């Protein structure tokens, strides 16, 4: 897709944990929270997972800004490992209004197309609902993202509530 084409941004939400249509755990895939916060790890995950999708906006940020972003109490990070190798990750961000935002979500390039995304998203949504008094889980994606992203969000039970053209 060339950058001359307009980009569509999709905003999705889930308003009750019962709406989750979970995917079972694939063999050898483990999702673990990175409980000790280390901004360099978040920066590495952002780079690893985001590279094919031009996630570049944050790569130029100085260490202090990365640290402020990644080491807050309102941000939690989970990493998927397949046989000891990082297969993907997600970050959850707790908002003041009872919303939890899936801030970043994705698979490492080697692991795209292996059926891991549905389970990783299931884990993201379950973790969001288990965090405090969550009343809504949100995410946004766009047409520059992996073509399967929007379908994965919808298949897990999320609904599009707004679209925008950029």
Number of domains: 1
Q: What is the helix fraction of residues, given as a range?
A: 10-25%
Shape: globular
CATH topology title: Aminopeptidase
Strand order across the largest sheet:
2-3-4-5-6-1-7
What does the main sheet amount to?
7 strands, mixed
**SSE order, as H and E?**
EEHHEEEHEHE
Query: What is the mean predicted local confidence, pLDDT?
Result: 95
Query: What is the level-2 CATH architecture name?
Result: 3-Layer(aba) Sandwich
Coarse structural class? alpha+beta
**Number of helical stretches of at least 4 residues:** 4
Assign the CATH class.
Answer: Alpha Beta
Rg calc = 15 Å
Low-pLDDT regions: none
Keywords: Transferase
Organism: Microbulbifer donghaiensis
Pfam families: Acetyltransf_1 (PF00583)
Protein name: Acetyltransferase (GNAT) domain-containing protein
């Amino acid at each position: 897709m060339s950058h001359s084409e307009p980009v569509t941004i999709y905003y999705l939400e889930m308003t009750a944990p019962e709406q989750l249509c979970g995917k079972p755990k694939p063999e050898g895939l483990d999702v673990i929270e990175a409980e000790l916060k280390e901004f360099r790890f978040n920066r590495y995950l952002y780079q690893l997972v985001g590279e094919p999708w031009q996630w570049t906006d944050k790569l130029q940020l100085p260490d202090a800004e990365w640290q402020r972003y990644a080491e807050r109490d309102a941000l939690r990070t989970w990493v998927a490992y397949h046989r000891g190798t990082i297969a993907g990750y997600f970050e959850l961000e707790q908002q003041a209004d009872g919303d939890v935002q899936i801030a970043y979500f994705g698979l490492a390039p080697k692991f795209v197309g292996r059926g891991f995304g549905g389970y990783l998203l299931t884990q993201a949504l379950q973790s969001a609902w288990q965090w405090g008094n969550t009343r809504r889980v949100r995410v946004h994606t766009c047409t520059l993202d992996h073509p399967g992203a929007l379908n994965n969000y919808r298949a897990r039970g999320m609904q599009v509530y707004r679209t925008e053209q950029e």
